[in-house]
Amino acid sequence: MKRGTLIKSFALMVLCVFLFTKTLEKQNSVTAARLEIPALRSELRAINEENTRLQYTVDAFENPETLLELLRQQEYSHLKHPFISQVVCLKEGALEIDGPQPVDKAGSQSWFKPPLVIGAHQ
Amino acid sequence: MKPRNRLATISLALLTLFSLLIVRFYQIQIIEGAKWARIAKGQHELLVTLPAKRGRFFGNTQIKKGHPARDTPYVTDVVKFHLYADPMAIKGGFKEEIGLKLSELIAVPSPVINSHLSRKSRSRKLMMWLDPEKKKEIETWWHPFARLNRIPKNAIYFIQDYKRSYPFDKQLGQVLHTVCDERDHKTGEWLPTGGLEMLFDDLLKGKNGKSLLLRSPRHPLDTGIVLEEPVDGADIHLTINPYLQAIAEEGIEEAVIKSGAKGGYAILMDPEDGAILAMAQVPFFRPAEYRTYYNDPSLVNETKVKGITDCLEPGSTLKPLTMSIMLLANEEFKKRGEPPLFDPDEMIRTDRRFFPGRSKELKDVRLHTYLNMDMAIQKSSNVYLSELVVKLIERLGPNWYREKLTSIYGLGEKTGIELPAESPGFIPTPGKKYASGLLQWSGPTPYSLMMGYNLQVNAIQLLRAWSVLANRGHLVQPTLIRKIVKEGEEITPPHPAPRRVLPASVAERIVGSTKYATKPGGSAFRADIYGYTEAGKTSTAEKLDKGGYNKKRHFSCFVGFAPANKPRFVLVVGIDDPVYRYLPGIGRTHYGGKCAAPAFKAIATRALHYLGVAPDDPTGYPKGDPRSDLDEADWMEETRELAKIYKEWNG
Predict the structure, then answer these.
(1) How close A42 gets to chain B, by Cα (Å)?
(2) What is the pLDDT confidence band of residue A122, given thresholds at 50, 70 and 90?
(3) In which domain, by residue range, is A49 found?
(4) Which is nearest to B615 in space by CA: B558, B559, B565?
(5) Is B444 inside a domain boundary?
(6) Domain of B201: which CATH number?
(7) Domain annotation covers residue A84
(8) Both B61 and B204 in a single domain?
């Protein structure tokens, strides 16, 4: 057998072994990742459940009945319900105001800052 | 045997054995291949249920259509744990010790736990719905204890489950209802107890999914194969506003306590589209404690939505509706070129006591000699309406009157609101007979009907009928559903548009008359909402009891809307069986004007403030209030004028 052929065969074998090892490593990492999935999924589920539970606690605290009770207390007696015409509704991400906008003498609206933000359009 | 023959024999035997092996392989792989593949799959693969979440209910906090609002959940599925024991896995000597410790941890008597642990069973449920904190507390004790005493760790174990939880506690209890703690043993599905949970069960329950795991000694290996995706139940967004509901519940509870009644309800509806804004009922029903209600026969009745399941005789609240039919009759005669039935402003004699076809005396609470339509509604006169109804039946017949009650106001038929067990009510039909053989419609029937007796309506029907006046002539479809969202897509069924059933001019005229009722001289002056205009009518209907009307048992009611000129809501307040008594300075407290009208005022005032409705009668306050200017107040000039005419006619 020629020397060159021997070297080529050896190099080819090394390359094959290398690629085979790499493939095995990849397979192992995929298997490891797949093994982690159930644990991670259950962790994610637990976090979501905890989130739901906490939200439930917040909602229970913000029970309208409790809020009405608070409204009757002396320290909140200054609070009044705004008239619907006083509610300014902003569009999300832009200073656009529902309904007619106040205009100053020069006709510019740049000076206007809404006094009250109730919420943003969903 | 010769060596050659021996070799041939051995070869033949080996060949036969090899052939048998091939045959066996063929049998296993080809013939029984599917069976063995299935068994292998069963040993290596595991089917896991991916639970679907039951749909939720949300309230509507929008105070104006189109305004942004946060979804406020009325019900949330919160994760809880059921505690189980495997008595067979626990060694006898430890059972008592475990029983004592568990009794201390979960507050269940130790004999109860010991009775479970002494059973020959692999699974006994010891306690339901434990919080995660309690689970952790039990595990903190159990794991070291099991290790120390060499008891299998899973001899005490937990199963996770979702519990329907109600952040607003009793609010809207009868409407929402709940699901039983125990699921259906065969299907594993929730069992709803009633209300919206029952009506929308198919949409709410969703569908569990399935996923495939590979078994391994240490870890389950996720194959990533989902055989069936779980489909969560649809979320139902209600028209109920939680704040208006709280206001209504507080208001009706206070009224029921004050009047010593058995119960009551307050329902608010948007007259423009029929959206129910609040549906309060006292005594309350706490869905989380449903077992208490169903285990006590005296409480079972409180789980119903009485506003739709129980019918009532609407009493005088029907008079404005009857009066509108009289005005409609005028238009009918005008079309026919005949003289009208009556003139709403004309002076009609109202001191007659006996009417054709009626043997019993018919009278008003107070004698009035002459009245016109506005006075008749203001004073809730039975005689005035009887005078008109005699003429109406004489000229147009009973069927015409009955047909108008049905076609204009939808009485006698289900409203179609999204709640189970709605009662259609009842209106007698001329010519038809009861099961007893008696005619439904007889001589006195028209007199009873115009006073709101001899017919049955549910509260939603009454509310819808009054909405026709509030929205100036349109019949709306009452609804509790704003939208239904399933897998991110809206699947809300179409809502029928309001349809015109009454000319706007007739509705406007009747609204004008009902505005007198809440002003001085009216039967419902206690319903006057300071700063706002309103229209409405009281009723105090005697209850049917042991085959007759009981003079001491009543259903008192007020139906009205505010602001009168551009109504934001129609509100019905019903007080069931207020105590029959006389209080010095107040008088008889069971009257609708005494117990239901103040509740209307209290609920409506707070509701208007919450909804941000600007006062449309800014000087309509009582004398002594700095804001008061009765000369400028809405409808005061007309009221004074009417009082003047009344005085002239009646001395």
Answers:
(1) 12
(2) very low
(3) 2-79
(4) B565
(5) yes
(6) 3.90.1310.10
(7) no
(8) yes
Within a domain: residue B641? no
B611·A84 Cβ contact <8 A: yes
Query: What is the spatial distance between Cα B9 and Cα B325, in angstroms, rounded to a whole number?
Result: 115
B410 in any annotated domain? yes
**Total domains in the fold of chain A:** 1
* C-alpha span between B554 and B596 (Å, rounded): 12
The total domain count for chain B is 2
Nearest chain B residue to A51 by CA: give it.
Answer: B78
Note the pLDDT of residue A87. 83
Please list the ranges in chain B whose pLDDT falls under 70. 216-224
**Cα separation values, A9 from A5, A12, A22, Å:** 6, 5, 20
Residue A112 lies in a domain: no
Under a CB-based contact definition with an 8 Å cutoff, are residues B262 and B233 in contact? no
In one letter, which amino acid is A87?
V
Q: What is the ipTM of this complex?
A: 0.80
Chain B residues interacting with chain A (CB cutoff of 8 angstroms):
63-64, 67-70, 72-73, 76-79, 132, 165, 167-169, 171, 213, 219-224, 242-243, 245-247, 249-250, 609-614
- Nearest CB neighbour to B167, from listed A41, A60, A85: A60
Segments forming the whole domain that contains residue B211: 44-238
Q: How far is A59 from chain B (nearest CA, A)?
A: 6
Q: Which tens digit of pLDDT belongs to each residue from B287-340?
A: 999 999 999 999 999 999 999 999 999 999 999 999 999 999 999 999 999 999
Would residue A93 count as lying in a domain? no
Q: Both tokens of residue B14?
A: 């080996």
